[in-house]
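Assemble and predict.
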Amino acid sequence: MTSIPKPRVQHPSSTRNALGLSRRDYEGGMSTLCAGCGHDSVTAALIDAFWQLDIEPHRVAKLSGIGCSSKTTAYFINQAHGFNSVHGRMPAVATGANAANRELYFVGVSGDGDSLSIGLGQMCHAIRRNVRMLYVLENNGVYGLTKGQFSASADIGSKSKKGEPNVQPPIDPVLLALTLGASFVARSFSGDKAQLVPLLKAGLMHGGFALVDVISPCVTFNDHEASTKSYLYTRQHYHEVAPVDFVPLRREIAAAGPVEGGGAVRSVTMHDGSTVHFRMLADDYDPTDREAAYRYVRAAHQRGEVATGLLYVDQGNADMHGVNGTVDRALTSVPFEELCPGNAKLQELMEEYR
Amino acid sequence: MRDHPATARKTGLRPTDVSNPQYYHKVVDCQWACPAHTNVPEYIRLIAQGRYTEAYLVNRESNVFPGILGRTCDRPCEPACRRGRVDGKPVAICRLKRVAADHRDEIGHLLPTAPAQKNGKRIALVGAGPASLTVCNDLMPLGYECVIFEKNASPGGLMRINIPSFRLPAQVLDEEVNYILDMGVEVRYNTPVTSLQDLLAQGFDAIFVGSGAPKGKELDVPGRHETDRIHIGIEWLANVHFGHIDRIGERVLIIGVGNTAMDCCRTAKRLGGRDVKVMARRTRKYFKASPWELEDAEEEEVRIVENHAPKRFIVEQGRLTGMEFEVLRWFEKDGRQRSEVIDTVVVPCDDVILAIGQENAFPWIERDIGLEFGEWDMPVVDRTTFMSTRPGVFFGGDAAWGPENIIWAVEHGHQAAISIHQYCQGRPVSDRPPVGMTLTSTKLGMHAWQYSNDYSAVPRQKMVHADLKSRFEGLNVEVELGFTAEQTAREVERCLNCDVQTHFTANLCIECDACIDVCPVNCLTITPDGEEADIRTRLSAPAVNPSQALFVSPSLPQTSRVMVKDEDLCLHCGLCAERCPTAAWDMMKSDILLPYAGASAARRSPSAVGAA
């Protein structure tokens, strides 16, 4: 939080995207989160991702629930659509919004409380339905807004600010999403935009539900020595599986540069034709093998490492609209007579069931 | 982390040493550019608080003549002002200086006084211009006896006889000159020095030559000496000042396009000139006059004619009727500007004023007294100590290295006073007292600072001028009316407070990126260490201005990367410090402590921040 809004002064060499907009045009209101909150860095990464992808602000729908994380949507793209819903109910609202207007970009921002406690069922069903949206889970292991109780993602043994250890096993959103059949599962860190921004871009371009679990430290209640979600702990236990570069379709596809330390480049084509290049490091990691991804993330966790990167991606699954065979346009562009054919048609339909 | 290969740490940039006063001094662009290093942001804050007297005293400490300079300064600070790079127009620093001078209370009792008990050293000064007066200002409080030899009947030098009173009212000049003379300076008026040898023989402990560059340059083209209607600019201005000249023909040509030419053309407009033209050899880009002086002349319907080179005066039956010019076209060849003549034209006129520069002339200095003369028949003067090759004889102002301006003369005076003091106390003149710095946090509490950190988007305030009718009613009608209270209130908020520094403590940083995300102008980057040229390619926003420093922190605790700040466009809004969870960033006011004669680096005047 700051006392004054960011002055509307731009660097003279600030670049503009294909729409003629600068990054500043993708900003939102003044953040009231604590100074140093990881969520503000996620905001900056989202701004960068939308700007780089040349997405028109009015084609974005921002959705959130309740919690520190859920304030994030107020801090980027002022000109986008927005819905701040009830606690844990963001996935339902996102599903409804997506059903009504499939032509928008949907970005839901939630937290470990909103998604893994009160809204756990909601998130599961959005994954199951493969609702096309970028689902950012700002994960800090505590309930910051209610003064730092452990959340459902707190690791066993991680200590509270007062020194109390957590004894309950955590829910890992990445493992959960993998078991539920999620088609895009990633984990990142608010302190590493070089990794986070390409993941957010890939998630926005994914043809279904894209989960990005972002370790986003709570500076006020969970950045102390015995915390496993602090800046320092995350940096010390950070293990990047396969660095990714996201190459949008309309940009000339240049092969990713040589990987430092050698290794191959593996490419996955997204539904719109854009590409994700995985720079394979030492491990023989296959981001399209769900079982292997599950084993890998679990093993890393047992070693005390935080596996990050685009951990699993599957472009073969149909999204909610594909499964349900819905109309191929936004409902706003379907004429009223078609949307609501009248009582006669209804009676006709009812007759079929008699 | 992948992003942070362990690059060349050993060969990396050394962390920036911000305890060296010069680093933060350079961030304060205006103060750095000012020859006298006036603490501009400090006095602007004082003005913002309505503390005009204190603002005046902060000014006076370094520039000695705030009221005079607030009207006439060449303002090297303004082109340097960071605000100019941010929104195109610098803060109206000079005009704010005048606000402080115009609204100050009685300050006589706040000024330094000369002790009754003198120190026994007597200093002779040649010329009562700004350089000599500054020397007296610095030496009188130390007990020196100062004797000025002045050829005219009143003090001030070129400030009095060459700057027209519609720009600088005599009362403003008298007041500020008298602050110095009233300490007990002995001025021998109407006493030109005709022999340095004689002066040396009078037993002074040191001599300061501040006699200016009093000779206007000649233009020897045919017809020059066939009429009395051709005038030398600075002599003509002096004659106007003394009342020897009170009229001029209707059609006047000014040759040359420096600031003296601007004073000449505007004075001509007030003495009966109707059709006044300034004839320039070159194109506007190369004019020597300050842009604002050109604007002021053009506002008074003076025409400025480019690319006309004087060829000859046309004198018919002893009467000047016109002047012939070659019309030039400029082009670049082999990296140099060259010209070719494309036409010849005659411009009719009744009077011509030559304002093509000034020269020094020292006919009164004997060449066999151990005072060496060098190139261009100028005395050899040390650039740091201002001493000539004859120990005990010092030079300053335009007399030292040719025409400059008032603020340079003042700075020369300060430096020469330090040297004279060293010399008279038997210490080496090359021993210069060090520059100091204090650094104090401006933090008052959560998001509360001792300065106005919010960026104000208001445009530069425009000076209101006397209307085009009333200003010509007398030579002494001041054209610039000064800022109104509302204009002042707006203009002070345009200052970015560049002396409130973004001070970084590396070992507190947790690398959360908060400062980088919130910086409106992308000043900040966390990146692996490396060579400066390499780091410059990895910044959040390209460093477009290599003349501005890069701050590089020591290694950060978590990843051993470094925090880099490009000083160029920093708004000093303090958002980095407000967003920083660990107070690794703080907004600290740097106060550059300049040494003056007899005083080690110490603050002499009040502060708008801190213990005031």
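The first helix of chain B runs from residue 21 to 27.
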